Automatic annotation (TrEMBL), chains A, B, C, D:
Its EC number is 6.3.4.5. GO terms for biological process: argininosuccinate metabolic process; L-arginine biosynthetic process; urea cycle. Signal peptide: none annotated. Gene3D superfamilies: Argininosuccinate synthetase, chain A, domain 2, HUPs, Single helix bin. It is found in: Cytoplasm, Cytosol. Keywords: Amino-acid biosynthesis, Arginine biosynthesis, ATP-binding, Cytoplasm, Ligase, Nucleotide-binding, Phosphoprotein, Urea cycle. One of its GO terms (molecular function) is argininosuccinate synthase activity. It catalyses: L-citrulline + L-aspartate + ATP = 2-(N(omega)-L-arginino)succinate + AMP + diphosphate + H(+). It comes from Hucho hucho. Residues 178-399 form the Arginosuccinate synthase C-terminal domain. PROSITE patterns: ARGININOSUCCIN_SYN_1, ARGININOSUCCIN_SYN_2. Pathway: Amino-acid biosynthesis; L-arginine biosynthesis; L-arginine from L-ornithine and carbamoyl phosphate: step 2/3; Nitrogen metabolism; urea cycle; (N(omega)-L-arginino)succinate from L-aspartate and L-citrulline: step 1/1. This is Argininosuccinate synthase. Residues 6-169 form the Arginosuccinate synthase-like N-terminal domain.
Length: 412, 412, 412, 412
C-alpha cells in the first residue's frame, strides 16, 4: 500500500531521477513536476524519462509569462539587489516554481512534496517556506537532508551506480566541474572548482552572455518605456524593432544584453544558513532593467519617498533572498513599493556595449525635474537668498556642537 | 578703512576673479586661496593673476594627499554612494577645501570667507556648513546670493564687461556649453546644454576617461590589497608595477580606470536644496575601488554586521552629499564604519576593460569564508538535518498567517 | 489702495490682535481665521474683537471632528512618538489648522496668509510648509521674522503700548510666566520660567489633567474597540457608558485620562530648527490610546510587518514634528501605515489610575495569537526538535566568527 | 563508563532536579551550576540538594555585580526596549548565565552543557547561542527537546512520580498556575492561566512591586547622576541617602521602584520562534533608569546622532531578545552605542509615585541645551529671518510636487 502521493520537483537530471525512483522504493506514489521558467531544456525528453521511471503523472508547466509579470516585475520595481550586487535571479524563481507545485499537490490530493535541493543551500529554504506558507499542512521530503538518503549517495558515483541498477538513463557527457541553475532571468554557477574564492572563473563558463571581449564593437541603443515602474515597451532605436509584452520585453533584453556581455558578476555572498559562498551570475536583461528603472525612478519620484522606498527595497531583497516571498511582511512591502511606483513612468534611452549599460537620457510626463528651476541661467521661481537662511539654520546644531566642544577641532 | 579681511576660495577663473575685484570694491581686504585637490590647473598663473588683481595674500595649497587619506578613504570604507549611483566625488572634496580655508582664515585673523558657488547648488551648503562647523563665528560672503551682485552680473556678458573694465584677464577660449568641476576623484559636468535631461551628453565631454569604444582591446588586471578597509597597495598583475602610498594608489587607479573608460554615469539626482538636477560624472579610480572594496568587505565581514554597516553607509552618503562631513552625526558614523573595517583585509584581483570592472577572485587572512563548510562535496562541521528545523521554525509565522487568513490564498 | 488680502490665523490674544492692526497699518485687508480645535476659548468674544479691530471678514471654524478623524487617528495608527516621548499634540494640529486657512485664502482670493508664530519655533515651519504645499503661490507674512516688526515689539510692554494706542483690548489678568498651546489632544507649556531645564514645573501649571496625587483612589476600567487601527468604541466597563464617534471617543478618553492625571511629561526635545528646547505636555486621551493601540496592534500584526511598520512610524513622527504632513513622503508613509492596519482589530481592556495606564487584557477576531501553539501544556502543531536545528543554523555564523578569532573570547 | 561530563544549569527546582538524575541515568557525569543573578533563592539548600542527587561538583556563582555592569548597563545605554514595551529583563540575564556555564565547562573539561528550558521558548535559544558562540565545539543536551525525555515526562505528574522514585525531594507547596522567572532586573510571569490573553492577571501575582493602589501616597524624589550613559550615583533627595556602586544603585532603584509599584506591564510579544506569547513583567529599577537615561541622553546628545543611535538601539533590543548578545553584530552595535554615550553625563531629578516615573528636571556640564539660543525673550545668536529661507527651501520639493499634481489637492 502506498504511503501517499508526492509531487516531486523534477529536473530530468540524474539527481532528481534517482530521487524519483528512491521515493517509489520508499513506497510513495510519485507525480513529477517540471517548471519551464525559461531554462534550456528538452521538456519532452524529460517527460518521457519521468514516465519511463514510473511517475504516476507528469506535469510540465510553462510559467515563463507569470514568472516575468508576477515575480521579476516586482523585483524590478524594488530595484532588488542583495548585498549591493546580486540581482536575485535564482531567488525570484523559487516562489514561482513552488507555488505551482503546491497548486498541483492540492489539486492531486498529494500530502507530500519533494525536491532535490541540497541541505546547505538557500533553495531548500525558498522552496519550503513557500510550500508551508501556501499549504501549511504539507509534508516535505528533502532527501538530501535525510540520513538514509545522503549516507547512501555520498558522491556522484553512488548515484551513477544506482541509476544503472534501476534503469535510469545515465548522462553521457561528463558533468561540468561546477553546478549551475538557469532560468529566464539568469544563470548562476557555483561549487566545484568555483569553491576556491581566489581562483578565477573559467572563460568558457558563461552560457547566457558573450564575453565582453568578443562582443560587438558598436553599441546597441535601446529605449525602454515604463509605466507604474514596469517596462511596457522596449525599442531598438536604430532598428526600430520593438517588444511590448512582459515576456517578449524581457527576452529581448536578454538577447541584447547577452550579445554585449552584460550582467556578469563574481561575488561572495552570505547565505541565509549563515555561511559565505561564492557565486557567479550572469543576468543580462535584468541588469539592463535595473539601470533603466533606477533612472526613471529617480527622475519621477520625490527625493524623500525614494529614500524610504530604497530602505524598503533593501528589506525586500533580503526577504526574497531568504525565501520569504510568501510572507506577511513581503506582501506588505510589495504593496508599499507598488504604491511608490504610481508615477514611475516615462522613457529611458540607454546604450549597451561591452558588458556595460550607459544611460543616455530620459523623459517623462510625470517627471519632478523642473528645468527652469534648476537652471543656472534663469532664476525660475527661486530666490537664492533663501539658501542663506537654509544653510544658517542647518548650521545651528553644528555651531552649537563646536562651541560646546571648545575650539580644539579647528586645530585639526 | 577696510571692512575686514576675506579669505576667498579662488579658482583663477572669470567668476572668482570678478568676485575678488568686487570684494575689494566693497571695501574688503582679500586673501585668495586655491586648493590643489588634483584638478588640472596652472597654479602659478593663478597665483600671479590673483596678485595682479590685488589679493593681499595668495595661498596655493596642495591638499591631494590629505584629500585621499582623510576624505576619499573613509568614503571607500563606507562604500559611499548617493542615490544608488553617484560616488560623491564633488561632495567629498568640499569639506577638505573648506577646512583649509578656515585654517587660513583663523591664522590670518580673517572674519570673513567667500566663495563663488551658485545659489542653487549643493556646494554652497557643503562649503558653508564646514565653515560654520569649524569656525562658528565666521561671516560668509556668497556673492551669488547677494542681490546687488547677482542683479549686476546677470549673464556671462556682464562678467566679461566688468573684467575688461577692471583689468581682469578675459578667457580667450569660448566657455564650454556646460560647467564642470574637477578633482582627483572625478570630474562632474552639469548645466548648460546638459540641463535637458533627455538630450545625450556630447561624446567629447569627458576629460578623465577614454571612451569605452576607444579603450584598449585587452584588459588590465590589477590586484588591490586592503587593510582596515583601505587600499594599501595596488599591483598591475602582468607588468608587476605597484603603488603603495594613498596618493600614488589612487592616481594609478585613475590612470588605469581612465584608460579603459571606467566610471562614467549620467544621472538625475536630488539636490539637498530640493530640486532635481542632471549630472554627468566620471570617477575612474573611485569606481574601481568601490567594486574592490565591496568585494573584500563581503568576504571578511559578518553578514549581520554588514547589514548594519550598509545602513550606516547609506546615511553617511547622504550626510556627505548634503554637506554634513563636519557634524556630530557624521563623525559618529565615520567612527562606527571605521570600527567595522578592522578585519576588512586581503587582496582582490580584478580586470578593467571597456568601461567595466570585473572582480576575478579574492583572498584574505581574515576571511569568514569557510571552504569546507560551504562545500557541496564534503559535509564539514554541518548537519543538514538542522536545516529542516531551521526551516520549520521559520515557517511557524507563515503557517499561522495562512491559517488565520483562511484557505483563500491557495486558490491564487 | 490695498496691498492685497491677508488671511491671518487669529487667536484673539494680544499678539495676533496687534498683528491684525499692524497688517492694516501696512496696507493690507485682513481676514481673520480662528480654528476651534478643542481649546478653551470664547469664540464669540474673539469674533467681536476681530471685527472691532477692523477685520474685513471673520472666520470661526469648528475643526474638531476632522482634527480627530483625519489627523489624530492616523497618528494613533502610527503609534507616533517623537524622540521616544512626545505624542505630537501640537504638531498634529498645525496642518489641520493651516489647511483650512489655505482653503479660506483660496476661496476669498487672498494672496497672503499670516500667523503669529515666533521665529525660533517649530510651528512657523509646520504652518508654512502646509501653506506652500497646498497653495504654492501663496505669500506668507510672518511678522515675528520681519525686522520692522520684531524690532518694534521687543517685549510685551511694546505690544501693550501699541494695543492701548490702537484701541486693542488689553488683557487684565497677568500673563502666566510661560506660554502654552492647547487643543483637543494636549496642552503644551514652554518658555519663560520653564526655559531653565533644571527647574521643576510648578504644580499649578497643568490645566487638562489632575495631579496624580489628587486623582481618585480607585481606577476606571475601559474597554476600547479598534477596527483598522482606529478606535470605534470606548466603554466604561463598570458604568456601562460608551462612546462611538471619533470626537466623542477622544473627548471621553480626555475626560477619564484627565481625571486620573494621565499623560504628563517633562522633556527636552530637539526642534527642527536645530536647537534643544524644554517642553511640558499633558496628553490624557492620546496617552491612553497610544497604549491601547500598541497592545491591539502587537496582538494582531505579524512580527515582521510590525518591525517594518515601527520604522515607518518613527519616520512618520519625524515628518509630523517637522511640519511635513503635506509632503509626498508623508502621504506615502500614511498610505503604508494605513495598509498595515487592515487587521488591527479587537478590544483592549485597560485600567486608568494615578497617572498610569495598565493594559489588562485583549481579544480579537483577527489575532495571530495561537493559544494552543504557545501553550506549555499542550504540544500543538509544533515539534520541539525543530528548535534544535533552528538554533544550530543560527549558530553557524557565531561559531565561525569565534573560530576565526581564535579562542581568546572564552577567557573573558 | 561515563559518556562524558555535563554542566547542567540547575535551579534547584523539580524540573532540573529530575534532569540531573535523568542525565546520570543516561550515563553522564553531572556538574550542576546555579547562578545567583539576584533571584530569591536558598542557594545553600540548592547546593545540598544537588549534592544529594549525585552531582559530581556543584557551582553556585554570584554574578550579580557583573550582571549589572556588563549586561544591564549596556542595555540602559541603548534604551533597549523590545517591541516598544519590554525592557528585556529575562533576555539580558541569559548570556550572563550561559557565559559562566561555558567557563565552567571549559575549566572542568566538560564537552556537554544542559539546561531545563522548554522547546517553545526564547530562553533555549539565548542559552545555546551563547554557548555555541563562546565554545563552538560544545554539545548541548536540551531534554525538553529530546523525545525520549519529553514523551516520558508529559505532565507535572510524571515528574513528581519520577522524583519520588528517585529520592528527589518533592515540592510541598502547590505550584502557582503560571511560571515565573526572576532576577535582579525583573520578574516575568507567563503560561498557565496567563495563556488566555484576555483574562486579567491576578492581583497577587506580583512579587517585586507593590500594587500602585497600595503604594505610598507621597512620592519619593531621586536624583540620578550619569557618566558615559550609565548611572554612577543615585540620591534620595529628601533623605540624602545615596548609592554609588552599580549593584547598590540598581538594587536601590528596585527598592524605590518596587515600593511605588513601578514597571508593571502586561503584553503580548513575538517570540523569536515565530509565535506570539503573553507575558507579564515587573521591572521597577529598570523602568526608572529607562526614563532617566532617556532624559539625560536627549539633553546631551546631538539630534542626528540620537536618531542614528535610536535605530541602533532598536536593533540591539532585537538581538538581545533573540539571543545574539555574543555575536559579531551585537558586539559591533554595543561598541557604536558605547561611543555615542561619551557625553551622556549629568543629573536627572525624578519623582516616583503610584506606578509612574516623572522627570522633574535635568542638568549637565555637557548639555547641548542653550538657554539663550532657545529663549523667547532674548534673541541669542540667532537671526529669525534665516528661518524664512529655511522654510522656503524645505518647501521647494513640496511646491514642485503640488504643481505637478495639478490643483486637485486644494479641494480636499
Amino acid at each position: 500500500m502506498s504511503k501517499g502521493t508526492v509531487v516531486l520537483a523534477y529536473s530530468g537530471g540524474l539527481d532528481t531521477s534517482c530521487i524519483l525512483v528512491w521515493l517509489k522504493e520508499e513506497g510513495y506514489d510519485v507525480i513529477t513536476y517540471l517548471a519551464n521558467i525559461g531554462q534550456e531544456e528538452d521538456f519532452d525528453a524529460a517527460k518521457k524519462k519521468a514516465e519511463s521511471l514510473g511517475a504516476k503523472k507528469v506535469f510540465i508547466e510553462d510559467l515563463r509569462a507569470e514568472f516575468v509579470e508576477e515575480f521579476i516585475w516586482p523585483s524590478v520595481q524594488a530595484n532588488a539587489v542583495y548585498e549591493d550586487r546580486y540581482l536575485l535571479g535564482t531567488s525570484v524563481a523559487r516562489p514561482c516554481i513552488a507555488r505551482r507545485q503546491i497548486q498541483i499537490a492540492r489539486q492531486e490530493g498529494a500530502q507530500y512534496v519533494s525536491h532535490g535541493a541540497t541541505g546547505k543551500g538557500n533553495d531548500q529554504i525558498r522552496f519550503e517556506l513557500t510550500c508551508y506558507a501556501l499549504y501549511p499542512e504539507v509534508k516535505i521530503i528533502a532527501p538530501w537532508r535525510i540520513p538514509e538518503f545522503y549516507n547512501r549517495f555520498v558522491g556522484r558515483k553512488d548515484l551513477m551506480e544506482y541509476a544503472e541498477k534501476h534503469g535510469i538513463p545515465v548522462p553521457v557527457t561528463p558533468k561540468a566541474p561546477w553546478s549551475m541553475d538557469a532560468n529566464l532571468m539568469h544563470i548562476s554557477y557555483e561549487s566545484g572548482i568555483l569553491e576556491n574564492p581566489k581562483s578565477h572563473a573559467p572563460a568558457d563558463l558563461y552560457l547566457m552572455t558573450k564575453s565582453p571581449e568578443d562582443a560587438p564593437n558598436s553599441p546597441d541603443v535601446l529605449e525602454i518605456e515604463f509605466k507604474k515602474g514596469v517596462p511596457i515597451k522596449v525599442t531598438h532605436v536604430k532598428e526600430g524593432k520593438s517588444k511590448d509584452t512582459p515576456l517578449d520585453i524581457f527576452s529581448y533584453l536578454n538577447e541584447i544584453g547577452g550579445r554585449h556581455g552584460v550582467g556578469r558578476i563574481d561575488i561572495v555572498e552570505n547565505r541565509f544558513i549563515g555561511m559565505k559562498s561564492r557565486g557567479i551570475y550572469e543576468t543580462p536583461g535584468g541588469t539592463i532593467l535595473y539601470h533603466a528603472h533606477l533612472d526613471i525612478e529617480t527622475f519621477t519620484m520625490d527625493r524623500e519617498v525614494r529614500r524610504i522606498k530604497q530602505g524598503l527595497g533593501v528589506k525586500f531583497a533580503e526577504m526574497l533572498y531568504n525565501g520569504f516571498w510568501y510572507s506577511p511582511e513581503c506582501e506588505f512591502v510589495r504593496h508599499c513599493i507598488d504604491k511608490s511606483q504610481e508615477s514611475v513612468e516615462g522613457k529611458v534611452q540607454l546604450s549597451v556595449f561591452k558588458g556595460q549599460v550607459y544611460i543616455l537620457g530620459r523623459e517623462s510626463p510625470k517627471s519632478l525635474y523642473n528645468e527652469e528651476l534648476v537652471s543656472m541661467d534663469v532664476q525660475g521661481d527661486y530666490d537664492p537668498c533663501d539658501a542663506s537662511g537654509f544653510i544658517k539654520i542647518n548650521a545651528v546644531r553644528l555651531r552649537e556642537h563646536h562651541r560646546l566642544q571648545g575650539e580644539h577641532r579647528s586645530k585639526h
